[in-house]
Design goal:
Elements: E1 2-4, E2 7-9, H1 12-17, E3 34-40, E4 46-47, E5 55-56, E6 58-64, E7 67-73, H2 75-81, H3 85-105, E8 111-112, E9 118-122, E10 125-132, E11 135-142, E12 148-150, H4 158-179
Antiparallel strand pairs: 1-2, 3-6, 4-5, 6-7, 8-9, 9-10, 10-11, 11-12
Helix pairs in contact: 2-3, 3-4
């Protein structure tokens, strides 16, 4: 156990070995899980749903064919559940890197198209902001134009739309890199 910023940080490995939370519940599989998504909550604000003790920032969404519920868990529990701690740590590291990029996203060198739309090329994608009747939306398109996605939601400000586009782009990149899914 350690303390960071006044918050008690527990050792997930110890929690697993001592059977905390669902690690000791009958009917909860310990292996054979797959990670279907990962989310950055922005701070240590959630409790791991497997060990039920560890505060987590990055939620690994874990699914198992023999368990009905998708569990949102920390890195070490995820790695143990899928029997691949390296993969779970890579996902965590990817999200940490994206978190730092997100902080700088609004201040990047956005360009203006001939039609007056802000746009940016990033990570092999073109991101275009569109003003639609007092609301903002985004278009994300791969460089090879095989993938095009319009935002389904409308945003009140261009910055909200830019950050939503960043979050969606992060989801695309993480799926491609860590889950082997196509877009």
């Amino acid at each position: 156990m350690t303390q960071r910023g006044g918050i008690l940080i527990l050792d997930e490995t110890e929690l697993i070995s001592k059977g905390h939370g669902k690690w000791s519940e009958k009917g909860v599989p310990h292996k054979g899980w797959i990670c279907i998504d990962i989310e950055d909550t922005g701070e240590l604000s959630s409790v791991c749903e497997m060990c039920e003790k560890q505060l987590i920032r990055y939620k690994h969404y874990m699914k198992h064919s023999d368990y009905q519920k998708v569990l949102k868990v920390g890195c070490v529990c995820a790695g143990n559940m899928e029997d691949n701690l390296v993969s779970a740590r890579r996902r965590d590291d990817f999200m940490k890197s994206r978190s730092n990029k997100r902080k700088k996203w609004l201040n990047r060198n956005w360009k203006r198209s001939a039609k007056g739309n802000d746009y940016l090329k990033s990570d092999g994608y073109l991101v275009v902001m569109m003003d639609k009747n007092a609301f903002w939306s985004a278009l994300i398109q791969s460089d090879d134009k095989t993938f095009v996605k319009w935002s389904q939601r409308k945003y009140k400000t261009i910055n909200e739309a830019k950050l939503a586009a960043f979050d969606y782009l992060t989801k695309i990149l993480s799926e491609n890199q860590y889950y082997g899914k196509g877009v």
